[in-house]
Amino acid sequence: MGQAAGEPVSLATRNLLRNLTMEVPSGERVAKAMKLPVLAPADLDDLEHFHLNERTPLWFYVLREAQVTAGGEHLGPVGGRIVAEVIIGLIALIRRILAKGRHERVVTTSAAFSRSTVVKDPFEP
């Protein structure tokens, strides 16, 4: 396995191309859709040369947002919400699977978790 001849080797380049071909919304569009603050234009000035300062790829926007809002120590509002929504969605999926009785336990490489451990509703106290 390897990279096809003529294909970009840089991960950043491949991500930029994937962003275009898969029509992933920009970071700014996602922030607006989530009704979260959009990064200030000054926070993206260095992307102006590449014409990405107003339509920043989501993956780059999440990284820059973390840098601007938290010094890169943790995710910012958009990145944090995306991760949280994925986790909540996975918990909901596991609950539906277990409710159908298809699996009694969810097993990982490190441990087996009982139904009560894995399926606790994140919104219940």
| Counted beta strands | 2
Largest sheet: spatial strand order: 1-2
Low-confidence stretches: 113-119
Helix content: 40-55%
Order of helices and strands: HHHHEEH
Shape call: globular
Largest sheet: 2 strands, antiparallel
Rounded radius of gyration (Å): 19 Å
Describe the structure.
- With 125 residues, the chain is mostly helical.
- The chain folds into 2 domains: 11-79, no CATH class; 82-118, no CATH class.
- The protein is 46% helix and 3% strand.
- It is built from 5 helices and 2 strands.
- Strands 1-2 form a two-stranded antiparallel ribbon.
- The longest helix is centred in the C-terminal third of the chain and has 23 residues, at 77-99.
- The radius of gyration is 19 Å and the shape is globular.
- Residues 113-119 have low confidence and may be disordered.
Features of the shown structure:
2 domains, two-stranded antiparallel ribbon, single chain, mainly alpha, 125 residues
